């Protein structure tokens, strides 16, 4: 055992070998595979509301010319609301049960998607904010459920969970333009159409809510010293900074490619192609990272691929296979980076209680940080009249993510034995 430390912020740090392994609680009502399927269906619906905007952003600008500058903030609003709503998730789970809060969050998501389809500015922004808040709460609780109910298969479930997030994002980005054309070029109708699969996911999750309470996901009080712990902040900043690059891609890569000369459908399919390639990376990366002595190597490889792909999409010629290769490298890098970020929440936590609160911290603060890059990219584009500032911005964010990730990837664990 390492020598005791004087600082409260360091009390939670222990070597991995010193963490006692708790016996995972039995699931309350359903076989484990049924809960896994329901959880993955929910995950499939947490990214289409975000990636469906970028492919039709130019059409939204054209339809709302007096709101032209503000429309660019549609890429930032949901991410910011995800960060602002995330801290409420553990308290809601303590009061109502995590499964019930996930159900309520999915119902709110359906309502927000429906409101966003009204095609007028205020419902569009209000619905987008509600969508972000709902995704923030649900997204915070799911990693804690993974740690609680799938402790012996945590990295595998993390990979599957991330793969479903990526699949949903890719599917929405790819079909958004054809869907809009099929609905008579009504972009608002195509945005609202994503409420249908979200409603189906809500109905599938509903039976997972136990009738008489649930196995606790979070303790009655916060984990002591978590918000003053350097390791917790490193996990949080890595989550936020790599997500900042991801949401810049979700919101702006299609407009960037369109401004570089691709038509709307081709730009949407290229974004979809990139996100599709996140699937195998998202499935494999956390498993390999979990088997390694630590996760620093995975962080370096994931961020190197991400930055290489981003710069390729910005600067390579648009009329050859090089741009598709850059999109492929980008997808592999971002799938690996996001899945490793989620895996770090699980791997750095000693139990489901710590995982739930570290997830809340990492995703609430992290997604608030993540809103920076899409917002800055839009403002820089309007100020410069081109995408030239995008490259330096992406490089700066990637370097900052690398610094945080190298700290978060160390072989240390946050111990949840000490609560207050």
Automatic annotation (TrEMBL):
Transmembrane segments: 70-89, 101-119, 125-146, 158-179, 191-210, 231-254, 266-285, 297-318, 324-347, 354-377, 389-409
Annotated protein name in UniProt: MFS transporter
One annotated GO molecular function: transmembrane transporter activity
Keyword Membrane set for record: yes
Tree of life domain: Bacteria
Pfam families according to UniProt: MFS_1
Keyword line: Membrane, Transmembrane, Transmembrane helix
């Amino acid at each position: 055992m390492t020598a005791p430390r004087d600082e409260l912020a360091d009390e939670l740090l222990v070597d991995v070998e010193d963490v006692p392994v708790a016996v995972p609680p039995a699931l309350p009502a359903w076989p484990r595979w049924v809960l896994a399927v329901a959880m993955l269906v929910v995950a499939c619906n947490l990214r289409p509301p975000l990636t469906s905007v970028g492919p039709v952003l130019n059409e939204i600008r054209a339809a709302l010319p007096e709101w032209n500058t503000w429309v660019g903030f549609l890429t930032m609003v949901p991410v910011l609301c995800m960060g602002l709503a995330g801290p409420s998730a553990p308290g809601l789970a303590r009061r109502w049960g995590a499964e019930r809060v996930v159900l309520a969050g999915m119902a709110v998501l359906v309502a927000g998607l429906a409101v966003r389809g009204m095609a007028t500015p205020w419902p569009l922004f209000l619905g987008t904010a509600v969508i972000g808040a709902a995704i923030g709460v649900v997204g915070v609780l799911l990693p804690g459920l993974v740690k609680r109910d799938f402790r012996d298969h945590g990295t595998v479930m993390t990979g599957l969970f991330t793969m479903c997030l990526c699949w949903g994002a890719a599917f929405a980005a790819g079909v958004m333009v054809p869907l809009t054309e099929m609905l008579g070029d009504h972009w608002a109708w195509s945005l609202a159409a994503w409420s249908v699969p979200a409603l189906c996911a809500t109905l599938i999750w509903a039976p997972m809510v136990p009738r008489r309470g649930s196995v606790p996901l979070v303790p009655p009080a916060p984990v002591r010293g978590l918000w003053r712990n350097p390791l917790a902040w490193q996990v949080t900043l890595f989550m936020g900074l790599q997500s900042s690059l991801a949401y810049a891609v979700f919101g702006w890569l299609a407009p960037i490619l369109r401004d570089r000369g691709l038509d709307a459908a081709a730009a949407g399919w290229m974004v979809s192609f990139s996100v599709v390639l996140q699937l195998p990376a998202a499935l494999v990366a956390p498993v390999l990272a979990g088997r390694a002595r630590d996760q620093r190597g995975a962080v370096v490889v994931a961020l190197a691929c991400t930055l290489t792909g981003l710069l390729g999409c910005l600067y390579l010629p648009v009329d050859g296979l090089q741009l598709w290769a850059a999109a492929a490298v980008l997808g592999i890098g971002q799938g690996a980076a996001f899945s490793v970020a989620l895996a770090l929440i699980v791997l750095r936590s000693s139990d489901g209680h710590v995982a739930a609160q570290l997830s809340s911290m990492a995703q609430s603060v992290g997604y608030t940080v993540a809103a920076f890059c899409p917002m800055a990219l839009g403002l820089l584009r309007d100020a410069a009249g081109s995408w030239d500032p995008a490259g330096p911005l992406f490089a700066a964010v990637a370097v900052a993510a690398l610094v945080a990730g190298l700290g978060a990837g160390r072989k240390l664990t946050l111990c949840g034995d000490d609560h207050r």
